[in-house]
Design a protein that fits this description.
The protein is of the alpha+beta class and 120 residues long. It has a single domain, classed as Alpha-Beta Plaits. The protein has 3 helices and 4 strands. A 4-stranded antiparallel sheet has the order 2-3-1-4. The radius of gyration is 18 Å and the shape is elongated. The protein starts with 12 loop residues before the first strand and ends in a 17-residue tail after the last helix. 18% of the residues are buried. The model has no long low-confidence stretch (mean pLDDT 86).
Length: 120
């Protein structure tokens, strides 16, 4: 079992990779440190050779658009290609699903699920 930072629910973890451009020595460290200081962020790393940012966070608290906003705030840009846009759509959908599942209250035992109408 891997250890996670305090306050992170491993069931709601999202791990995403963003391909970036516009990185330089001054903004690389700023991006990583600001994202790393957010509560419920488990891991953040930047591969300088591939210009990719890997982020693992509790998606019941954050979403990929918050990470993109931090990157853009420091002068970085998300790579604009068909594949990057497609992955970004999947990442947004994944984050939305995790956030909705975190809100869900499960039906218990032999009770009918909420909203189920047994009348015919």
């Amino acid at each position: 079992m891997t250890e996670h930072r305090l306050g992170i629910n491993p069931g709601f973890m999202a791990k995403h990779t963003l391909t970036l451009s516009g990185l330089n020595q001054s903004n690389k460290q700023s991006i990583v440190s600001e994202i790393d200081q957010l509560p419920c962020v488990d891991d953040v790393s930047l591969n300088e050779d591939k210009q990719t940012l890997r982020v693992a966070y509790d998606a019941s608290h954050h979403n990929i658009d918050e990470m993109i906003a931090i990157v853009e705030k420091h002068g970085g840009v998300i790579k604009d290609s068909w594949w990057s846009r497609t992955k970004l759509g999947w990442q947004r959908q994944t984050d939305d699903n995790i956030k909705e599942n975190a809100k869900h209250e499960a039906a218990c035992c032999s009770k009918m699920p909420p909203g189920f109408n047994n009348k015919r």
